[in-house]
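Let us work through a complete example step by step.
Step 1: write down the sequence.
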Amino acid sequence: MSDLSITRRRLLGAGMLGAGMLSALPAWARGASIHHGGAIRSGFDEVSGASIDLTVGEGMHTVQGRRGHAIAVNGSVPGPLLRLKEGTSVRLNVHNTLDEDTSIHWHGLLLPFHLDGVPGVSFPGIAPGKSFTAEFPVRQAGTYWWHSHSNLQEQAGHYGPIVVDPAGPDPVQADRDYVMLLSEFTPMHPHAIMDKLKKGEGYFNYQQTSFTDDYPLDAEQRRMWGRMRMMATDILDVTGSTYTYLANGHGPEEGLEYLFNPGERVRIRVINGSAMSFFNVRIPGATIHVVAADGQNVRPVPVQEFQIGTAETYDIVVEPTDEAMTIVAEAMDRSGMAVATLASRPGARAPVPALREAPLLTMADMGMNHGAHGGGMDHGGMDHGDGAGAMGGMDHSAMGHDMPAKTTAAEPMDMSGMDMGGMDMRDTSKLPPTVKIGPGIDMVAINPVDRMGDPGIGLDRVPHKVLTYNDLAALERNDDPRTPSRMLEIHLTGNMERYMWSFDGEKYSSVTDNPIRFAYNERVRVKLVNNTMMAHPIHLHGHFFELVNGAPEGFKPQKHTVIVQPGGFAQFDLTADEPGDWAFHCHLLYHMHSGMFQVVTVAQPGTTAGAEG
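Step 2: predict the structure and record it as tokens.
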């Protein structure tokens, strides 16, 4: 089987597929609906041109012998790759053949807010039998994706990739250009998953501790976790116990190949289009050069592995050295993986590594780390352009112990001699008055520190270089050199046992009339503090923001989604220059559905209303 293979020559000709040539495409690529209840194809094709039709339908989908209901666009899961061109205009026509409302959010694309595709925020949704057209100028280049923002449809297959070719020369030179869209398949209906999480948040965790497990936890550590009513193995809410992990819609046994000739440079645009999964991506035996993050070019970073959170994208370049090399996208909890092969000839294969040992959460994930590792530096001050990211001193206020930020199953953390007294993780008095105290909060980070230098859960002890946010720097200078005029602190809050998620202790349903307000063109530093023991990929619609990561002055990397590690915080600088109402939420689908969602309102030019935070 083959998926999207794009050579340099094809890249040059891709923009030639205009509306006049669409008749040459098969019916499903022109937007014809699949028959109601019909079979859905795995994989995707490419559509482009000035006007593109996307038809949302439903049917049965089979992956590696498992069959379930799915929602497809133009007859496939994922839906088609949209190939756009910077500097042109595009008309995207979405046709709904479902029996329920639908929508499409163009994730990462800069466009007017009323075309952003979020029902209840920017438009009413697309009713059954109706259509919606989004027509806008394409203002950027890079790797993005699209997905439904309606009724948990994203989990069922309603998503697809976007590639925007630059108007001028591409700074990334490669002989091959591929897309690797990571996602999940489950025969279980999304609302059934939500129901099980509400009744028992550990339902899908088959890696829980027990009397017979072999996790390197001593008796005192087990008692500590028991007293806190938490699990050291609570890494992902939904796992490989129900998910089959996909690459371009194909399961790990279905043989997805990316062909190359020896000596070629291969670009792979990695998109995490999953509903609930973080992936650790590596190519055993190869050095990966990260060249773009969330569609924005960065100075190349050589690594052997990187973690990609839900909704993030990373472009990588690799020069294969063997006739076949395996691309591994291992779920963060190591309960399964997506697999593809870089192959110099059809059918060439390399060994697929076994799943690594499941990781364990540690004191750092409880917010009890004073900053001895990775991102432990406190960036509390504003960046005044000295190239050091305005990094403050180490925060030792809560503990006097020197401990690693994380530990894996292979190297347990020594907690001997540690005084757990006074470390009440449920002491809500430690929260600021902006956080609403109630049953939606069951944990408070004792001493949250900046964890931007953390490679991700389970990756701090691997014997090779792993990407961190602190490695990223923009390839070109950012266009707004201003120092932020104020700080806005937002707390990520939740109650795992009740499966309640929120910002500042309030579910979205409670705060729809109280959005986060920015004045037009206001420059703000946003600090996201994670009071939970789960990593959250936080996405702001309609904008890019600059990570406060210690990059040289003017070259902080721009992203639209940032992972906030458990018990820590992350900061970004935002120029609020896109007027309108925008969604702001955790991109873990069931967290968003449970309440970790807000609306950001950017005032129209010439007004100052809403500058208070």
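Step 3: interpret the result. The chain has a mean pLDDT of 83.
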